[in-house]
Amino acid sequence: MEIVLYYAPTTCALVTYVTLTEAEADFEARPINLGKGQHMSPEFLTVNPKHKVPVLVVDGKILTENVAMQLWITRQFPAAQLLPSDPWEEVKAISLMSWCASGIHPHLSRTHNPRGFCDRDDTEENVRALAKEFIFENFEVAEKMLSGRDFFFDHFTAADAHFFWCFRRSQQFGHDVSKFLNCCQHFERMQQRDSFKKVLAFEKEVMDGFANAA
Q1: Which of 139, 175, 180, 190 could lock onto 164 through a cystine, CB 3.0 to 4.6 A?
Q2: What separation in angstroms does the CA of 198 have from each of 188, 203, 211?
Q3: Which 3 state secondary structure label does DSSP give 74?
Q4: 87, exposed or middle or buried, with CB in 10 Å at 0-12, 13-18, 19+?
Q5: pLDDT at 214 (0 to 100)
């Protein structure tokens, strides 16, 4: 089986990289330089006309959207236990990942590119402030979910990887998240896993390569 992951540094492609690594899958990560507009190139648009990463290509078949990718990886590599085995807990984990993708991620996008959502003069800071409020409202929910727990469920799942990315991206945008103690502890705990060490090392390698090629 040939598995290719189209990946860009700092993006939510981190989630799929982590879960593929946790599953001990043999895959190729193909870096996409968003800063150079490679996601808008004709070549990439034939892979994903939505011009987004991650994209998973399995034996030539294309799959987009993180939640769908996690479901495929879980089914293809059941021994990795990337979702809970109990059916009810499994759908709760899918719900949590969907929340990360649709409830948190869009507000992170508004923080990163406010003019992409409102291009009227003097609105950027207001858009960022409102986005931060929504992000922190969601982190309050996660804070309660992680109370007294190492993971969102009884063991590490893809949901932990997805939330890690959201929490990390918020910090990269300069948000002070220190009041979310349980989330911070979860964030530190995730960084100790070999899969996260691997993806963060790969991210640095890719970013250094992009910088040297500039």
Answers
A1: 190
A2: 15, 9, 20
A3: helix
A4: exposed
A5: 73
The CA distance from 151 to 160, in Å, is: 7
CATH number of 87-193: 1.20.1050.10
Q: How many helices (H) and strands (E) does the chain have?
A: 9, 4
Low-confidence ranges of the chain (pLDDT < 70): none
b/e 25-64 (16+ beta carbons within 10 angstroms → b): eebebebbbbeeebbeeeebeebbeeebbbbbbbeeeebb
Which residues is 4 bridged to in the sheet? 28, 57
Provide the whole-model pTM. Answer: 0.96
Collapse the DSSP code of 64 into the 3-class scheme (helix H, G, I; strand E, B; otherwise coil) and give the result. strand
Domains in the chain: boundaries: 3-80+195-213, 87-193
CA dist 111 and 104 (Å) reads 11
Sheet holding 61-64, edge to edge: 28-31, 3-7, 55-58, 61-64
Contacts of 124 (CB under 8 A, 6+ apart): 114, 115
Q: Which residues contact 76 (CB under 8 A, 6 or more apart)?
A: 23, 25
Distance separating alpha carbons of residues 209 and 146, to the nearest angstrom: 37
Instruction: Return the CATH architecture of domain 3-80+195-213.
Output: 3-Layer(aba) Sandwich (3.40)
β-strand partners of 57: 4, 62
